[in-house]
Amino acid sequence: MKLLPILSACALAAASLTLGTSCRGTVGIGSNSNAFASTEIHNSSRRNVDSAIRSVFREDGFSLVSQTGNTYQFQKWGGRSTEVVYGTWFTDGVAVEPEVELVVLGNGSYAVLCDVYMREHGSSLMKANHRLVASGKLAYNGMMKKVKKRAEGK
Fold first, then answer.
1. Measured in whole angstroms, how far is the alpha carbon of residue 143 from the centre of its chain?
2. CA-CA distance, 98 to 131, in Å (whole number)?
3. CA–CA gap between residue 152 and residue 138 (Å, rounded)
4. Least confident of 26-30, 48-52, 53-57, 110-114
5. Whole-number Å distance between alpha carbons of 142 and 11
6. CA distance linking residue 116 with residue 119, whole number of Å
7. Which of 27, 33, 107, 148 is 20 to 30 Å from the Cα of 141, by its Cα?
8. Residue 65, SS3?
9. Could you give the 3-state DSSP secondary structure of residue 112?
10. What is the 3-state composition of the chain as percent helix, strand, coil, each rounded to the nearest 5?
């Protein structure tokens, strides 16, 4: 077994957690949100926002796992490197699972808040469940910008 790739992955994970506290900016709604990525949408309908959220995540390879009220849970399976960084020895796989919340602000305005989790699946009693704080932030901010653009019809 090669130890260097595993140690490199662990170092990368530790660096991501360390840098996470300084990367808490959001898209569109200022610093009032603790979400990993977010945006604010104006002059739109609930139906257009819902459609934009679903289509943007689907186009990025995510499946809608559940929707309860204004909360959506998406899922996409990670690869071997994801298992090394976020899994345990007994994993059956690690999935990227964004949780998106749609907040109705009124008068055709909405906030879309997205938190992203790396969740281990399998039979292990000690399942990993990591909330991302830095890694991949740019990609999810880009997705929030696409949601905003589509929902506002631009």
1. 10
2. 9
3. 21
4. 26-30
5. 26
6. 10
7. 107
8. strand
9. strand
10. 40, 30, 30
Q: Which helix (H) or strand (E) holds 104?
A: strand 93-106
- Altogether, the residues listed in the chain come to a count of 154
63-68/109-121 β-pairing:
unpaired
- What CA–CA distance (Å, rounded) separates 99 from 83? 20
The tokens for 149 are 């653009």
Which pLDDT score, from 0 to 100, does residue 85 have? Answer: 67
Please, are residues 38 and 154 in contact by the beta-carbon 8 Å criterion? no
Strands 109-121, 93-106: parallel, antiparallel or unpaired by DSSP?
A: antiparallel
Residue 126 tokens, joined: 């000690």
DSSP helix/strand/coil, 143: helix
The secondary structure element, H or E, covering residue 76 is strand 71-77
In tens, the pLDDT along 70-127 reads 999 999 987 777 666 666 666 678 888 999 999 999 999 999 999 998 887 765 555 5
**Contact status, residue 56 vs residue 131, Cβ threshold 8 Å:** no
3-class DSSP assignment, residue 8: helix
Q: Residue 44 above 50 pLDDT?
A: yes
